[in-house]
Specification:
The chain is of the alpha/beta class. It folds into 2 domains: about 120 residues, 3-Layer(aba) Sandwich (Rossmann fold); about 120 residues, 3-Layer(aba) Sandwich (Rossmann fold), CATH 3.40.50. The protein has 9 helices and 11 strands. The protein starts with a strand and ends in an 8-residue tail after the last helix. The model has no long low-confidence stretch (mean pLDDT about 100). The structure holds ligand LMY7XDAE. The ligand Nc1nc2c(c(=O)[nH]1)N[C@@H](CN(C=O)c1ccc(C(=O)N[C@@H](CCC(=O)O)C(=O)O)cc1)CN2 binds next to strand 4, helix 6 and helix 9.
Length: about 290
């Protein structure tokens, strides 16, 4: 079997076009554009690229982009004061602090400082709790992007066996919650999991988010399974995912790296910002995304 390669770039472009339609509706009805504030601390090159892409995509969708670039020696107090200011700003519908933060800053305290109703990253513990209990809230962008791709490829996910490899707060745990929400039978595997190949072999759906280049091997894969690769590993061979591309010989469908899950992250961020603006203005979107 040769897997269908899932074109995340094209799917993300479609989501962004739908967001632009929603943004136009909000602008018409509220008389203002939705606003996304992005905060970058320090000079991490990859983070700078992601923040630039977010700014461009925000403007392309018709929204207001507010960027704050702070030096690497920014203190906890300075950053918290900026978050407070953005929380209070009526023109700001979404706040995102680009991660990772420099080591001297307390990431968890900063995330918790963001107003949960402007937390378009979905990282605030209140939004994690809302997701876990099935209440409306913001869902982290990368896992929600994975879910949209899975629904597009497989349709109804109910009853599927899903294995999520990785238990981070940002990807693994919310991914598991989303799959449970779509009635999958979910296993979360991690560094202490015994016989990982055998666990993966049972799965109809595999989501790999561990940050280890090409860790998932073809002989681990159930024939026809759908594979979602969240890994972005910079190696001598270039950018590679957590799933060995040779798995395409066994899988039914899989995401490439690059061009799979990555582009969905920014598309869902725009979607979350639109949803926030619509909620804050009491607008029902004509076409919910
Ligand atoms: N506050 C946040 N910080 C970080 C997040 C996040 O969702 N919120 N996620 C990642 C970085 N990230 C967005 O911020 C991101 C990562 C990757 C991509 C992407 O499109 N990747 C491309 C490859 C691009 C490359 O060459 O590096 C792909 O996979 O095709 C977009 C956004 C960590 N921080």
């Amino acid at each position: 079997m040769t897997a269908r390669i899932i074109d995340g770039k094209a799917f993300a472009a479609d989501v962004r076009a739908q967001v632009a339609e929603g943004v136009a509706q909000v602008a018409r009805e509220a008389g203002r554009k939705p606003g996304l504030a992005v905060v970058l601390v320090g000079e991490d090159p990859a983070s700078a690229v992601y923040v630039r892409s977010k700014g461009k995509a925000t403007v392309a969708a018709g929204m207001e982009s507010i960027e704050h670039r702070l030096p690497a020696d920014t203190t906890q107090d300075m950053l918290e004061r900026l978050v407070d200011q953005l929380n209070a700003d009526p023109a700001v519908d979404g706040i995102l602090v680009q991660l990772p933060l420099p080591g001297h800053l307390d990431e968890s305290a900063i995330i918790t400082r963001i107003d949960p109703d402007k937390d378009v990253d979905g990282f605030h513990p209140v939004n994690a709790g809302r997701l876990a209990t099935g209440l409306p809230g913001f869902v982290p962008c990368t896992p929600y992007g994975c879910l949209l791709l899975l629904r597009d490829v497989l349709g109804d996910l109910s009853g599927k066996d899903a294995v999520v490899i990785g238990r981070s707060n940002i990807v693994g745990k919310p991914m598991a919650q989303l799959l449970i929400g779509d009635s999958c039978t979910v296993t979360v595997a991690h560094s202490r999991t015994r016989d990982l190949p055998a666990v993966v072999k049972r799965a109809d759906i595999v989501v790999a988010a561990v940050g280890r280049a090409k860790m998932v091997k073809p002989d681990w894969i159930k024939p026809g399974a759908t594979l979602i690769d969240v890994g972005i590993n910079r190696t001598d061979e270039g950018l590679v995912g957590d799933i060995d591309p040779a798995c395409a010989d066994v899988a039914g469908a899989m995401t490439p790296v690059p061009g799979g899950v990555g582009p969905m992250t920014i598309a869902v961020l725009l979607r979350n910002t639109l949803v926030s603006a619509a909620r804050r203005e009491g607008i029902t979107l004509a076409k919910p995304i």
